[in-house]
Design brief:
heterotetramer, A: Pyruvate-ferredoxin Oxidoreductase, domain 3, Rossmann fold, 4 domains, 7-stranded mixed beta sheet, 21% strand, B: alpha/beta, two-stranded antiparallel ribbon, 11 strands, binds thiamine diphosphate, binds iron/sulfur cluster, binds magnesium ion
């Protein structure tokens, strides 16, 4: 029952965007990711962004799929197809479709007249009716609606139905009944679309070969894998969106890979022991306290949290900095301030993490751009934390952490040896006349430590109060300064150990664009679009703090640079200025902080409007 | 400067313990606490207990928060590993350390401010997790290091140095422990080494968190306004006064509590505290009775002391989490990393 | 978007309370909790209690922390003043608000995560200060809003949605309250409005902190893995699963607890909880007996409910601090400022 | 028994420095401040710096008195007289005296030969012996030694003995016995010096008329007075050095001025009621929570703390910022990081306070330079906090807070009316169609609030989660941004309400010196000394954040500026750069962070050495 008014008939292959509007808790998310997964399996670059509420059931939720043959998979703001399954948001959802686009809706009930945009094609599928007719249980009727609309979309954009069918069979391998209903529902929607609409629509998929060595993974899972491969054994954590899944995954992975079989278990005893201990703490202060205790004892330990948790850890982070205890923190950033929007993304903990705690403190930060970097950087975090004996933060965010991204397969080099930093064992101690905690610094200003349990010669008393290089309590200016001065130099020395910035230069560029983290894809797409429009820009993505000299050079080489980041206060720009000494006026803020993943359009518009001025 | 290296004077005549060490080997730096501070007596008892136990010093990890009490780990077992952390957070750090290395003997020293105010949540949850450690609260009813404010264990009606009487009921860490499912609860008096040392030894032997509430008088801030012995009392100008400028030199109070009767001990400010040791035949395994006993004694103005409650059957944090009996920090990396082949296999599930 | 304005449909026939308001006037925004969530039943009971008490809505201050439970103050008494604060900190904000204005009726809503983990220290100290407020813990044994982790009140051996059984003893807020010197302790079940409404009314009348532990089942995260009714159970690929994607629509559980006998209530996941109301003749004034009763019931696998303990003689935070009986925020500035002449006089003492 | 070797006989009147080395807990502090008070009463500009350990009894402690007729009373580093009363630190103390200076010591025991510097005059007074001979009680013998050495100093530098005697009588007005012993001890020391040494020494005091309208007061007392006069009624706090005395004093002042008499008290009832409620909280998180609760309810409420406390308050500060609740925080800074040196001073919480909490947050800061400003700024803090409905920090420090300073008398304008900001009462509400919390912004981007207890029309639901201008929960980008954008503008608008910078320009200046807080005196002295040496510098002391445009202009008007501050990381310089956009290279850091009050010499040396490069 399509209302043919403004149909756009230009055929676009592997280049379109779909938005699906649902109610949370109804089972739609599985159906939506099924679509995205199928497209991925067809070898086409794709992304899926889950825009969900901070609530468990009953509120509006959206999912966006962007298909792009050139790999531009940042968030699109032009939707070719809207799957409008939530009558509560019909109005805004229908508003959201590009002119000439399509709306798929449940035609079991008629659409209000006023919703009918003349420049959009409405595709009604009687989903509820079909499900009532085909399924008996109320629960199934709700659930299968999702699979049915997915089936319709499969037909409409030309996804390989067999592939989707296989995916369903894999998912429900263990449950025949459910497998059956899912398959039926898929066909219901698929067939209805085939029969009633001209399938495929002008925008459609066609198989490609672009994802063969890629995977679909979210950043939190990848980070957890990184911690597993890094050899982390202890973690203290407290649940918080969007970081919780890091620890959920780490727990699951440990249960899978870290169980030591027990030869002859006593009756009642489990047949294995856990080579890990994950403690759900009473709060974030306790979580970081546990990490410090374990790291002090020589275990690789970490926590994962989000902004409010970092705020609470503020005091103990100063203790770790000053006493030189390694710690790895994964901050999956969300929209602040305060509780803010827990299910929206932002990059607004940069300054907090860089300088967390009272007094003069500086920390090391890594900024992954995607799940693959979450995996790799997580491992590096432990190496850097132990090498430099200090807290290291990985600043992920909700978009990276909770959405599935297409990234190259994760690989592991079995020759990897963890950098445990300068730790003296009893043999080392035996060869020494005496041991003092903060003496004998190396070229990177790191001094060797001992672990509790070492020979008494290596015993010392950690303290967050003023201490001299021997670790002895002091209130003497010079002795105090000697230690904190070394800490500053040590921090600076870590610059060459954090991942180097990614720089791409283009002939004729006068302007630079600097960004970080998950803005990567959108900014790259924008750089290309700007070039098409005649504005040639160099690109730099910083990946770690402290900054290598190249960061300053990049700014200085350009008349000015745009700094694209997802916070209100231009925090990266501030940090670059303070820490490299480059003139702040050479860096123009380009900020997007509404809580959604960045899209190239925001960058292009931002740059162009400033260039026009 | 609060830790001064104590000259080790070899005394050939000192008795040796099972591992050939003398009591001197269990001492630490010279205390910088006020002369007469109860905390120093607790330090002496701890020194003694570890010596008697023949615990190798390097297998001891001593942790603390912030406060006068929390300074004391520097003053015992110099060969042990120490961590003077942040105010109220000792329990969290001890939990993490214990998680990484279950093979050491953990002793945490805290104050009533450290444990019953800012750190009460961590204490409660460490008890619930049953972290295998000795947890000593050096309880003086005041914030010593910040100069004499009431703590949450200050008694109703007591008057702090600067004025208003305290009108809130004190928090009793033993009752708190009972409500949190503690597995070892004891109370003693800093001056009664005869009672405290065995309790410390029992605590070291206990598998789980052993909480010891030690009443340990602060000689400086029990110099109450109401007391006519107070130097302060005689001054006129409160405004300009430099608080605690003069602190008279006092002696530590030493006194063994009677076996079967209440013992009255006069504090430095003249106040009298009535301690009562648990009677012989007392059953520390019956949680309900324990509670009853403590409350009953309290209602008579007495403080019950001794090993008040113990439950040897409970699992500690490692048993609850099914970890191996070796320290996690000793597991070789090869065992921890699943390797490239497993990763490659796993990649299949992400397609 | 979690608060949706509920259309007010005037129903002339609704009964009015003493101040001429109907139950509708005590309602709030439409709940956005999961269908069947126990917290919605508690909201209904609170709505009812305030209506019955004829409390003028604007004299109510409703506060909360963060969690599903902490969202609920939006859902009752829309004419009341509300403060949805930060996770675990509600008690501190209520204390400050009460300090400034003792004339309002304070009701704090919290969850077991909010109050027994991150906020346990503040709860303990608010109890000790005896802040005059109703303090409701909507206790579901899990962290609802963050999707189903165990809370500190989860029962031994219960299995959370994602796996491992919980092996630590639950924290019972009533026992905690007893150990902290609470002056009003009650427990009820979200589905038993008949029991809960009078308890809430008694709590409102109590001078001091009235702690009510309300067992309030989470319908979504009690959908245990072990349960064959679970949708999740049927899926293969744990890795890719989008947790809690589908949440079946459930009904709230309503059931009055028996007067003198245990009541068994079947939760959404099929587990059975045995509640027991305090028997007639029960003496809520004898602290020791109360404790005994609760523990005894617990040892029989029963949860004691009702008004468990009350002490009407204790002083509240204002009485303890000798403040006037009017609100401090109404004292005119002229009274608060000593003025220039006094300052000039004072300057003499700084010479 | 003076060893006359290198006596310096140039007479210097009202221009010298004394350092007194003691053991803490022995009663010396009272004796030392007695000397300083006496000099003050002689009308001479003077300062006293108490350098004490983080311990209660038995450790070294120092007190420095600087007398300077021109009012240069920052810390001196050249000591004319050392009163060496602590044998444990003899060596370093004797080392500390300027060549040609004097050492007063207790000659009851002989000094070790190796301590006898040839270029210094040793003045032995048998203090212990005298006290044993003259006093019976052991306690008195210890105490009176202090008064006795004070008596010797009185003679040695020519202080009016009658004045000191009067001071003692005032102090011990209530206790005749103690009064007597003190008077005796004073004379003992005085007479001994008179009889054995050539009194006065070449450096000495002579009466002046420079302190007539001044007082001697510490910053914590002054801040408490400010809170009293501002009408604060509620405070939540947690003990911490060096902030504790703010609340001790506030408590004392309230007990004195805030008691409402009760007409006919019931038996057992007190005859008054307290028009205040001060709660010693369980921790700093609770302290700020209580302040927010009370401020929400319309009371003027505040807390006082130091660095570790601010770290712990970090999360709730974001809540206050985002929900727009006034709060006043007095941060008496100490040396960080972590527990650091609790009895040493620093200005190292600047960045933490400016941006406290996760997400994008900005706070208002006031930087007092001395106790008088502590008093005045404390009052302003409440006005600004209530006007802008946001947390306001007063950044004092240990030096200002705990030392006695000579400042002009505090005065009060009885016409002062507190600025309670935009609060709607029931009458206002009655006249309105409807009320929404974050609408109706004024020219400074402030929206009116209501207090709990107001008519239901004014009822709303505060939340730290995402909200629109109506106060309703939102996860919508635009609605969220509308609110946080206004917050940013509101913060900027407060710039003209914080105390304006103090600027002093000098003809021919090319360089500027910028500073803040307690560095004031030392920097002014340095500016004068530099001018004497031919280096003319303009001076600016910033007194509040956000910065007025003048701050940027000042930097731009100079080739470059030195930024003098007491922290390692040049935090003020960073803040100025980030927030004004001025080129960071124009500001050269001049940092002193050893924990002691700044002295002019450090500034002069710093500037000169950089000018030479
Ligand atoms: C976060 C923080 N807040 C406050 C302080 C200041 N502080 C140091 S010790 C102490 C209290 C000590 O009392 P207690 O634990 O009873 O130890 P005691 O000195 O009485 O032995 C406080 C509040 C601190 N160090 N850190
Ligand atoms: C500082 C901080 N840490 C973590 C969170 C995440 N968080 C939100 S609600 C919640 C727990 C809620 O559990 P509970 O109080 O039991 O409420 P319920 O949802 O079960 O009603 C957590 C951990 C947060 N908001 N703030
Ligand atoms: S102040 Fe009290 S607790 Fe602290 S050292 Fe002195 S006597 Fe001991
Ligand atoms: S998740 Fe549980 S607690 Fe939260 S709203 Fe749903 S049922 Fe209620
Ligand atoms: Mg104490
Ligand atoms: Mg809960």
């Amino acid at each position: 029952m399509a209302i043919d008014t403004a149909e756009d008939t230009t055929v676009r292959v592997n280049d379109f965007a779909i938005k699906l509007a649902n109610v949370n808790g109804t089972g739609s998310a599985s159906a939506n990711s099924l679509l995205m997964q199928a497209i991925f399996r067809m070898g086409i670059p794709v992304s899926g962004k889950n825009l969900f509420p901070s609530n468990i059931q009953g509120l509006p939720t959206w999912y966006e799929i962007r298909v792009n043959k050139s790999g531009y998979t940042a968030r699109a703001l032009d939707y070719d197809l809207m799957v409008a399954m939530n009558s509560a948001t019909y109005e805004e959802d229908i508003e959201d479709v590009r002119s000439g686009g399509y709306v798929l809706y449940d035609s079991s009930w008629p659409l209000d007249q006023y919703l009918l945009r003349p420049d959009v094609t409405f595709l009604g599928v009687p989903l509820a009716r079909m499900c009532i007719e085909n399924f008996a249980a109320p629960r199934e009727r709700i659930l299968m609606k999702n699979v049915a609309y997915a089936g319709a979309v499969v037909a409409l954009v030309g996804i390989d139905i067999e592939l989707v069918s296989d995916l369903l069979s894999e998912t429900f391998a263990r449950n025949e009944l459910l497998r059956e209903s899912n398959q039926n529902a898929l066909r219901l929607g698929y067939n209805y679309a085939k029969e009633n609409f001209q399938c495929p629509l002008p925008f459609r998929v066609e198989p490609m070969d672009a994802t063969k060595n890629s995977i679909l993974i979210d950043g939190n899972t990848a980070a957890a894998l990184g911690c597993l491969y890094a050899g982390a054994t202890v973690s203290g954590w407290y649940p918080i969106t969007p970081a919780t899944a890091v620890m959920d995954n780490f727990t699951r992975l440990c249960a899978q890979f870290r169980r030591e079989p027990v030869e002859n278990p006593a009756p009642g005893e489990l047949p294995y022991k856990n080579n890990y201990l994950i403690i759900q703490a009473e709060d974030e202060i306790a979580a970081i306290g546990m990490v410090l205790g374990a790291s002090w004892s020589g275990a690789r330990a970490f926590t994962s949290t989000s902004g409010p948790g970092i705020s609470l850890m503020n005091e103990l982070l100063g203790l770790a900095y000053y006493t030189e205890i390694p710690a790895v923190l994964i901050d999956v950033q969300r929209t602040g301030p305060s509780t803010g929007m827990p299910t929206r993304t932002q990059q607004s903990d940069i300054l907090l993490c860089a300088y967390a705690s009272h007094g003069d403190t500086k920390h090391i930060l890594l900024f992954p751009a995607n799940p693959r970097e979450c995996f790799e950087f997580a491992v590096q975090c432990f190496d850097i934390a132990e090498r430099f004996q200090t807290p290291v933060f990985m600043l992920s965010d909700l978009d990276i952490g909770m959405n599935d991204w297409v990234v190259p397969e994760l690989t592991w080099d079995d020759s990897y040896v963890p950098d445990r930093g300068r730790v003296l064992n009893d043999v080392d101690l035996a060869g020494m006349a005496e041991f003092f905690r903060y003496t004998d610094e190396d070229s990177e200003f790191v001094t060797p430590r001992t672990l509790p349990g070492s020979d008494s010669k290596g015993a010392y008393f950690i303290r967050g109060s003023g201490h001299d290089k021997f670790g002895i309590y002091t209130e003497d200016s010079e002795k105090y300064q000697e230690v904190v001065d070394r800490l500053k130099k040590k921090h600076a020395a870590s610059a060459t150990h954090v991942p180097a910035p990614v720089v791409e230069r283009h002939d004729g560029a006068t302007v630079g664009i600097i960004t970080l983290g998950g803005c990567d894809l959108a900014v790259r797409e924008a750089v290309d679009q700007l070039a098409d429009g005649g504005v040639v820009a160099d690109f730099m993505r910083v990946r770690g703090f402290p900054f290598v000299p190249e960061v300053r050079q990049f700014v200085e080489e350009h008349d000015y640079c745009f700094v694209v980041e997802q916070n209100r206060d231009a925090q990266l720009r501030s940090l670059i200025c303070i820490e490299t000494g480059v003139a702040i006026e050479k860096m123009r803020p380009l900020l997007a902080y509404g809580g959604f993943p960045l899209s190239a359009r925001q960058v292009v518009d931002g740059v162009t409007s400033q260039l026009e001025n | 400067m609060t830790s001064i290296v104590k000259p080790i004077i070899p005394l050939a005549s000192l008795p040796m313990n099972e591992i050939g060490l003398t009591i001197r080997d269990y001492e630490g730096a010279v205390s910088t606490l006020c002369a007469g501070c109860g905390h120093d007596s607790v330090t002496a008892a701890i020194t003694h207990a570890f010596w008697e136990l023949s615990t190798p010093p390097h297998t001891i990890a001593k942790l603390s928060g912030i406060g006068c009490s929390s300074k004391t780990p520097t003053y015992f077992v110099r060969g042990a590993h120490g961590f003077n952390s942040a105010h109220g957070r000792m329990a969290t750090i001890a939990t993490g350390a214990n998680a990484a290395n279950r093979e050491l003997t953990y002793i945490g020293i805290s104050g009533d401010g450290d444990s019953l105010s800012i750190g009460i949540g961590h204490l409660a949850h460490a008890i619930r997790r049953n972290v295998n450690m000795i947890y000593v609260i050096e309880n003086n009813g005041v914030y010593g290091l910040t100069k004499g404010q009431f703590s949450a264990s200050a008694d109703i009606g007591s008057r702090l140095k600067k004025g208003e009487p305290n009108a809130m009921a004190p928090i009793d860490p033993v009752l708190l422990g009972l409500s949190m499912g503690a597995t070892f609860l004891a109370r003693s008096f800093s001056g009664d080494k005869a009672q405290l040392v065995p309790i410390l030894k029992a605590a070291a032997a206990h598998n789980g968190l052993a909480l010891i509430d030690v009443i340990s008088p602060c000689v400086t801030f029990n110099d109450h306004e109401g007391s006519t012995k107070s130097y302060r009392f005689m001054r006129e100008h409160e405004v300009k006064e430099i608080q605690t400028d003069f602190i008279p030199i006092r002696k530590e109070i030493h006194k063994s509590l009677n076996e079967n009767d209440a013992t009255e001990i006069t504090m430095h400010d003249g106040s009298v505290v009535r301690f009562r040791s648990v009677p012989s035949g007392y059953d520390p395994y019956d949680r309900q009775k324990v509670e009853e006993y403590i409350r009953e004694r309290r209602s008579r103005g007495e403080i019950a002391t001794g090993l008040l409650y113990v439950d040897e059957s409970a699992l500690d944090v490692h048993e609850l989490n099914n970890t191996p009996d070796y320290a996690l920090n000793t597991v070789p990396y090869q065992k921890l990393c699943p390797g490239s082949a497993e990763l490659a296999k796993m990649m299949m599930s992400f397609r």
